[in-house]
Every structure is written in C-alpha cells, then in structure tokens.
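Quick look at the format.
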Amino acid sequence: MLDELSATPEVVWGFLVALGIVLVLTPVVGGVARRLGAVDEPDARRLNEVPIPRLGGLALFFGVLVPALAFLEIDREARGLLLGATIATTVGAVDDFRGLAWWQKLGGQVAAAAVPTAFGIYVDRFTFPFVGVHELPVWIGVAATIVWVVALMNMVNFLDGMDGLAAGVCGIAGFTFAVIALSLEKPTAAVFSAIVAGACFGFLRHNFYPARIFMGDAGALLLGFALATIAVQGLLKTASTVALFFPLFVLAIPTLDTTFVLARRIKHGERLYVADQAHLHFRFLRRGFSQRRAALTMYAWCATLAAAALATRFVPFREGGQWHLWPTVLASGFGLVAVAFSIYVAYVLELVKLATPRLRRRDEPPGERRTA
C-alpha cells in the first residue's frame, strides 16, 4: 500500500487541497447564503434552534472541483464525473434557494446520474462469489447504474438531518474508497475519493455540532453522486470477488436509515418524499443522546463497517486458493466487531421491537402519534 501511495502522490495532495479549500471557503459561502436568504429557520421537524445558512454544498463543490481539475487525468470518465457532479450540485442548490417539486428534483437527479453512464461509467460486469465474472448487457448496466446513483443521492440527503452526520459518514466512506481503489490500481477513483474525503473533513470544521452552516441539498446530492459513481468506477467494475460488497459495507448506514424510513412511511400510508423525524439520528436523540454523542456513535459504527471492508480486501485469509487460519481469524474479528456494533445500535434504538405498540408509539415523530 505504501508503494502504491508513493506512486500516486495526487491522492495525498488532492485530500489536502480539498480540505484547505473547504475550510477557507465555507464561511464565505455561509455569509453569501445569509444575504440571499438561503437560511434554515427553526421549525418542528428541524433540530437547529437558531437560523442556520445552508448552501454549504457550494463550498464542497469547489473543494471537489478545483483539486479534481488539478490532480485528475481529465479523460473521458473524469469529464463524466465532473459534469455529473456539477448537475447534481446545481439541482440541489436550486432546491436550497427556491425549492423544487419532488418530481423536478428527481428529474434533475436522474439527469445527473445519466451523465457518467454516457461517458462510460456504468456497471458492465461484476463478480458473484463462487460463480465467477458475469458480463451485463449495456442497457441493464446503464439502468442499474442510474438507479444506484439516484438512490445513494437520496440516501445521503436523508442522512443529512443532524449536525455533522452526513459529512462525517461520507468522509469516512471517501477515505475507505480511496484506500481500496488504490489497491485495485484505479488511480482516478482513488484520487477522486481522497478529494471527497478531504472536502468532507474540511466541512466538518464548520458543520459539526453546533453547526454554523448546513450543506443543504447541494452538498448532499453532490456527495451521494460522488460516492455512488466512485463505487461504480473504482470498485464494482472489477473482477475482484469481494469488491461487490465494499460499497455495501461502507455505505450501510445511509442504506439502513433509508430502508427503515421508507418501510415506516409505506406501513403508515405516508408520502415517501415528505420529511419526518423517523430517521436513525432522531431515534438516538429520543433515547437521550446529545447531537454530539449521536454523531460520534454513528461515526464509530461507520468506522467499524469500513474496517471490515478493508480487512476483507487486505487480510490474506484465502491466498492462493487456500484458507489460512490466523488471517481468517483476524478478518473474522473485524467482521464480528462490525456486527456487534450493529447489534448494539439495533438494541439501543430498539429497532427489533418496533412491533410492540408501546415502543412503536414512542418512536413515532412528535406531532404524528396516533390516538387509539
């Protein structure tokens, strides 16, 4: 890994430049957002008690764009990445500033997701464990990629409901993807992942509790788009047997959060696109966690999942087609820690007990509890 890193110094420089740009630019964007009136006012479904400017996603965008232009080889796929990211950010910024109907926003997301597929970034093959590599028809690969990208854009948007949460989780995911992409000799994906991680960690300086600015839809859609396309370009389009599961490990938190929220809305006959307080971070708060503690707990959860993904890639538990005892024990240990932490979260949030009427009522968002 050290040899690969020394051969690709753009990974480190991309991370540092993105970090610096977002650190410096975010307060400026916050001031502009206040003058434009792009501010989140306190209300019943928000956690902020004072007006907080949004549009922080614009700082994230420039923190990604500038080092990408400087350190990426601007080939066909890189152009697709950057053009799609620009569309995703623009759609989010318009929604932050003026508001969009759900179908307008979804149309913009589909347009952003379709761009990288037109530039050759789509799943054309993947590997099933024990079965082997399978080629996909182009139309299936393109359609699956668009669905994946749009889904992850919305997952990150759902996750962005508490100070620092989305930025921290996406930063950990970006760092993990950079390491894995380096090992798979995917330099474009590695550099872009490192840039995304640097931008996220720079934004956390201003967004961690108590937040002074929110990323808004502009930032959430940008980060969701970036992580989704990185997963396709650098991880899924490989013959590595375990590569299919890397994105699922690292992005488990936004995936689970979205799954639980949508399942609840479908169960109660609610509209899928209307915001509520059923997300995992709101459940933490209703269990007595502070915003800071809830965010740090979810960071730790994401870190254990990322460690499991890295162990799957780097611990040689099945080298040369044969299983090796101690590497297998080590890799299994990382996996067990991730599973144990997931069980802890499920226990704390009582996710497995939601069928009990008393607990279900307690978990219903304030103002939405049903009377018998």
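Next, a different chain entirely:
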Amino acid sequence: MGLIIREHFNEDVEFGIWEITEDYDTLRSKLTLDDKDITTVESFKNHQRKLEWLSVRTLLKEMLGKDGKIVYGPERKPYLHNNSFNISISHSKNFTAILMSKKKRVGLDLEFMANKILRIADKFLRPEELEHIEKDQELYHLYLHWCAKEALYKICDKVDINFVTNLSIEPFKPKEKGIITGTVNNSYMNEKFSLNYFTIKNYSIVWCYK
C-alpha cells in the first residue's frame, strides 16, 4: 500500500502516513542504509519492529525526496541530521506517521484502537476528563485523549511531564475529525495547544504544531 496520506500545512509543516503492506526485503530495497543503520535494523529481534523502523525511513524519504538521517536526543526525541527539520514519529500495528517542520514545534501520535485502554484510562486521565467520556464512543474517545496527550508530550520535548498532573484536555465530543484543545502546565511552561484529530481504519491520529 505504502503512502496513503500526505498533506502540507502553512507551507512549512508536512504530514504523512504509510500503511505497511510490504515485506522486509521490499522496504529494505527502497532505502540506502549505511553500516550503522544495517546493524541497527538487523539487531531487532521482533520482525514487526524491523518493518516499523524501515517504514519510518521509507516514509521520510518519500516526504523529503531523498534518504534522511534520524538522530535522537537525550530524551529519545527524534531529529533530522543537522537539525534541518523538527520531526515527530509514531507507529502502531501497520501504520507509520511523520509530522515535520523546519520552523515549528511538532507533536504526533497514532494508535490502533483496542479494548485494553479501558483498563488503564484512570492512569492517564484526570477525574474530570473521565467524567466527559462519551459512553457510546468510549473506546474512540479514550484513544483521542491518549493520542492528544502523547502529541503534547512529544511537542514539549518529553521533559517534566506527567500525563495526569501536567497535561489536560478540554471537554469535546468525538467526531470523525476535529480539533481538541490541550494544555501543558509544568515547570517549563503553561501553554495551550490546538490539536487536530481524525480516524481511519480503526486508528486514531492526533497531531499539533506551533
């Protein structure tokens, strides 16, 4: 399947989703990897992890028009080599997504929706957030909250953030796509963000840039 979504926002922000339907050799053939990259991908014992790693770089190449080198900071926050782009990456099951910008901060999360989230909702939501969950769309609504908080966590560099105490989501009614308002309040900032969301093929996707 490969690239299924590619969009530009404000001329500086680009968003892409890749659906993994290729096998390992097909994805590997799309990339030019150095010895370190080959060692890295071959070190993964889990085959799905290998496909995820390759699909991220294949999607990045599609978006850049050339191979791109991803490096990681101290908090495992990804960057493009030489800081040419701010970048946020997410993958779940058979989807991989990238949000990138030269000038803006970015945060992105996608998740395949499964019932397991019902057991852990109180671990990442405040009591007042739980009260506003729509029971007839409970699974989707919970995943949108989780993805929104993950996106905020990523846009704020993953530093000094607890999902319950430092991140809050304003009440909203889940639709097929829409906008969520979230706030980050920690020792570094007290700032509001607008987050875009949508659903496709049982995945929930949330992203923001600022």
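The mean pLDDT is 94.

See the schema section for token definitions.
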